[in-house]
């Protein structure tokens, strides 16, 4: 079950990060981003997802760089991922699954060409506490303002 959640979120993040970087005036997005640290250290490669609390809102997500920084993009469709997030209140989840890049469980190398469509080489083990991978248990929230700075520092602990 957790692996399916990780795969779905990773797929959404991949779609979002592959989109354009232009602001989204049609959606009314505003620049937003932040940092993720765990035990005081920057977390690279984590997916940060904001889930709107209001009906009709659109979620946003981003992936952290080597300094733990991320910039949010809003998913508006397969060819439209405007930079930023829509103003509003959000519940936040953060995932950092371990990716299998060496031998598979059967002892053979993982060949990306052999991965079936809809499948991912994720092992499913979370490299940060699993409670952060669920917006109901993470305890993390974000309030995106229509103007001003929207910088969200998420400091994760055990």
Gist?
The chain has one helix at 2-17, and strands spanning 33-38, 41-42, 47-52, 60-63, 69-71, 73-74, 88-95, 97-99, 122-126, 140-144, 151-156. With 158 residues, the chain is mainly beta.
Q: How would you describe the overall organization of this protein?
A:
This protein has a 5-stranded antiparallel beta sheet with strand order 6-4-3-7-10. The chain is globular and about 40 Å long. By secondary structure, it is mainly β. 28% of the residues are buried. The two termini are 22 Å apart. Strand 1 and strand 2 form a beta hairpin. The chain has 1 helix and 11 strands.
Low-pLDDT windows of residues:
3-24, 104-120
Q: Please, what is the average pLDDT?
A: 80
| Strand and helix order | HEEEEEEEEEEE
Helix tally equals 1
Estimated radius of gyration: 16 Å
How do the strands line up in the largest sheet? 6-4-3-7-10
Query: Describe the biggest sheet?
Result: 5 strands, antiparallel
Tell me the total number of β-strands.
11
Shape: globular
Instruction: Give the amount of beta strand, in percent.
Output: 25-35%
Share of residues in helices? 10-25%
Class computed from helices, strands and strand pairing: mainly beta
The span between the termini is 22 Å
Strand-helix topology:
Blueprint: H1 2-17, E1 33-38, E2 41-42, E3 47-52, E4 60-63, E5 69-71, E6 73-74, E7 88-95, E8 97-99, E9 122-126, E10 140-144, E11 151-156
Parallel strand pairs: 1-11
Antiparallel strand pairs: 1-2, 1-5, 3-4, 3-7, 4-6, 7-10, 8-9
């Amino acid at each position: 079950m957790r692996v399916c959640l990780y795969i779905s979120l990773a797929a959404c993040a991949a779609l979002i990060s592959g989109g354009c970087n232009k602001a989204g005036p049609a959606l009314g997005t505003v620049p937003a981003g932040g940092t993720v640290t765990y035990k005081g250290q920057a977390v690279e490669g984590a997916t940060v997802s904001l889930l709107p609390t209001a009906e009709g809102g659109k979620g946003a997500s981003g992936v952290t760089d080597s300094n733990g920084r991320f910039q949010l993009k809003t998913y508006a469709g397969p060819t439209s991922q405007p930079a930023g997030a829509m103003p509003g209140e959000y519940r936040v989840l953060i995932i950092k699954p371990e990716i299998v890049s060496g031998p598979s469980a059967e002892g053979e190398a993982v060949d990306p060409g052999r991965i079936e469509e809809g499948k991912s080489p994720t092992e499913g083990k979370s490299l940060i506490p699993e409670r952060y991978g669920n917006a109901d248990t993470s305890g993390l929230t974000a309030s995106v303002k229509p103007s001003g700075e929207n910088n969200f520092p998420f400091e994760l602990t055990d």
